[in-house]
## 1
Amino acid sequence: MSTGIELASAGRIVESGVLILGGGAAGCMAAIGAREQGANTLIVDKGMIESCGCAGAGNANYHTHLNTGPDWDSDETATKYYSSPGPTGGYGILSSKVFDRAVTKQLIPMLKRLEGIGIEFHKNSDGSYRRTQSFGNPGPWITTMKNGKYFKRLLAKEVRRKGAETAEHVMITSLLVDNSRVSGAIGFNIRNGEFYIFRAKSVVLALGGSQERITTSSNGNPFSCWMRPYNTGSAMVIAYDAGAKIVDLELMTRATILPKGFGAPGMCAFAGMGAYMVNAEGERYMKRYHPTAERAPRSVLVLASYNELAEGRGPLYIDARHLSEDDLRHMIEDRLYEDCDTYPEYFAQRGLDLRKDLMEIEVSELVGGGMLLVNERCASNLKGLFGYTPAQLSLTLCGGFSSGTEAAKDTRKLKELTKVNNEQVIEEKSKIFEPIRRTTGYTWQDIESKIRLVMNFYMGFIRNEQGMETALHRLKLIERYVNDIKADNYHELMRANETRHLVRYCQLLVRATLERKESGRCFYKRSDYLDLDETWSNKHVILWQENGEPQVSAETIE
Amino acid sequence: MPPIIDEDKCTACGVCAAACPGDIIHINSERNIPMVLYPDECCHCGNCRISCEIDAIKIVLPLSMLV
């Protein structure tokens, strides 16, 4: 193991009990969980924990059952709904056993915990939660934050109060592994270029489950998108490289409905709460696609809208003109504005007044999915590596909390930190900084835009095997050019490393999609397998590598 | 258009540069003022404006989002 290289001379070494990679909602809750177990805890993120992640500039909705009595409001229904093998698969549930322990049982206590740290929820005059129904949920499971714009800031305040440390403006580029045990991670400061070696007894992977900059919506801008554009698949790439099994890349790939030209969350919930989705003929087209019309699952809203546009019945619109002033005010000001702080500018600059105007909508870019394959204790196949991060805020808060708790418990098994593989550190350091040493080469934009040319063309809403095999071939070609990217400063170095991860992530996503030979469970269709195949109903596509060779299998997860 | 910072109001406290999740705002050390160095990478999330306590930031969406 020893190479004679003095590790301390390579960069700054930072040690912790639990190392949490990613400071978004899941990472912050993981830190709270780990601190409550008494672990020395460190969060690393490219941004600040007050503002990073998909909820960084606000989030309005918290989805949960409340156990108030009816069947639709129970723990059992929550687990059954989310783990049903239908179009809800995109949440990343893995199995009812994993989900029930790590998430369902945590959802209601988590709501109370959020209230305890200053997040307020809209309530009715009798003190009960004001609840609404969307997304094909079995009941009105959406509670809404009054001060959702400050959600992340309040959460970060609690993380700091609990005593977790942070290393901010640091990009993680790989996991450290010693003898099948994850022993830390490697990264660099995006502002000053300082190289970091993080050593830890256990690691929580929470770098984000929504990979962006893969495809674009109609505005052609990869940075104007549904989720945050600063996550390009690092979580999946570094886990795969370390030897972890990753899962559901294709099943968790998602899209949504956007206001035309504007990358922002909120439209599907808005429609589900009473607005109509209409086509150019003024028809409420969702009635033709689902018995609950606009309250259908997100995947149904997306594919129906895609179909309407493809068959020439666009443009499409949101029609909210029939709603009462009170409902409209609640839906716009209490929800949309809390979900995304710049909706008021969008409405003002477009001259839109939803009380009298139709609002044009479109189908968003496709957002890549995937997560670690974990057991009910949120543990991966690699010792010391944890992280259960289903998609959707309430679910990932609970998954994050469970992951941090379990990771902290695991640290008790180790008396001291595991060894660091010095060779791996030196090799990764060289890879990270190569673009800034180059005097000539391509810009990161030159190369990254070509990834999207391939993904937009071959990996859109309708795809097939031949196209995807072609995509794999082209992505491999692009990967060769990634080695010629030049960076003039540390910001560009960060983007260059994001591009390096993106081209790798896209190949993993194509491989996973090739394996699932059916349509109807994902946000895309396969033109070569148009029907839902029940033999796939409980199967998950798992990717990993052995001796550098990619492995794939479709398995049922216990 | 990226965020527009009102230089008359701005105190160069740096909170917007720290809060920007995309690292697009940096403090210019010569002029001691935050500058939007990478406007094409702005996701228009509003984090800079939420962070600014003196209301010195205005968000203007680019033409591509209006057509």
## 2
Amino acid sequence: VNGLAIGGVLALLAAAWVLAPLLRAVPRRESDGVAPPVPLEAGFACSACGAEQEPGARFCASCGIRLAS
Amino acid sequence: MTDLGALSLWVAVLMAAWGAALSFAGGALDRDDLARSGARGLAVSAGFTGLAAFTLWWAFVTDDFSLQPVATFSGEAMSAPFKLSAAWAQRSGVTLLFALACGACGASALRLHREGNRELMPWTAGMLGLLLLGATVTSAAVWNPFVVLEVVPEEGRGLDPRLQLFAAAIRIPVLCAGVASAAVALALGLPAAVRRQFPRARRRAVGTWTSVAWCCLSGSVLVALRLAYAGTDFGSAWIWTARAAANMSGGLGTDVAIVGSVVALPAGVHLNGGWRRLRPAARAALMAGGVLFACALTATTLRSARTVELPDGGSVRVADPFRRDWTFTSQGASRMERPDHFVTAVALRAARGAARAEFITSEFREYYARDDRERFPPHTITGVRGSLLEDVHVTLLSAGEGRAGVRIAFVPLAMWVWVGGVALVIGGALATWPVAAGGEDVT
């Protein structure tokens, strides 16, 4: 019983961690869910949440929205 | 702990399925959240596979004979390292070990190479998830190691003494690591090949895992060769007879290792810029190893063997393949009892010309349990005297009152196989490991 209890608790914790990216509220544009990038001096930023992005990023590292090319 | 292991295996199955499905979905729909959840699913699956393996090892170390594999392949008197290796003495343990290798290599690859490979990573994660799913499903549903016995024995049967060797203990883990590394290299390379995008980071990643796969696979082939060579009945035969080859392969595993090695080396070299751009050290090691290995394998066709019956103190003259005369003098056969087996041994004094004489001993071992029933199949330990030019083998065939039947065999250049094999492994690793400047991105 102890083994099953420990395994069950571990499985629940793991499931919560795995599901976490899906449960995060992702801001989306009403049109097509694609955010146009905002040019900065070095690189660009996500227009949905304002987070600075790496050059070449296709998704926002902060909110996960797809960045328009 | 047994319950925890069985539960962990099924959680690993579910998480691998989740990881594969979400990763493919993330790649197809360009959804980063799906891909991220899929990658986490794979990491969790690998973790729970590790937990299952840990509980199995724990059962072996603590002599939990309620588990069928522990009762069948372990015993209280065994040393701790061989209790651990007994876990993969049977099919269910090998399957779990392979799942662990796939999980560990896959999760490491996703963690190590996530930067610079983001676009293709969901497809890689999906392929690794499918591999892990297959391995964990097989381990959980087909060959589950967590089978509990209704009647718990007081003592385990123990591990076959032929498997209580360092080489036999490491062969399966090395083989599993090699196959898993090759699968990771394939999972990294295939999406890039389909998309026709080979950024530098991805080429380096594929090259690194190909190099690891080459080392492990070719190393496991060498270990299998060594086990076959030092085995009981090979004496003069070795790899040229069907029987020896079948014993060498030890099933499907070594065949996979041979094919994998044959594929891994050219693939790694190609990714590294082709044969012309090989490091000088790699080129030298590969050439030296190849020449030594080829010479040695060719020379073993000149092996010779002779079966003789010697009285105690009797001598026989035998010529080796180089036409040199050897004199073998029997020191007499003896029989002794050890804690769990009987030993019948014969020692021959081997002398050649003025060279210093050496004793070569061969043993016949019979293992019995407490109730005097045969515990393991009897087997013969061949005595080997190795030298750079040739190995001399003495195998005890029969022992009677004052007489012993032995087979005396000569295997030319046998040591060259090991030197050449090690040089090939090192040369291949140097040739396939990515160079510092990996060249331009290829699209």
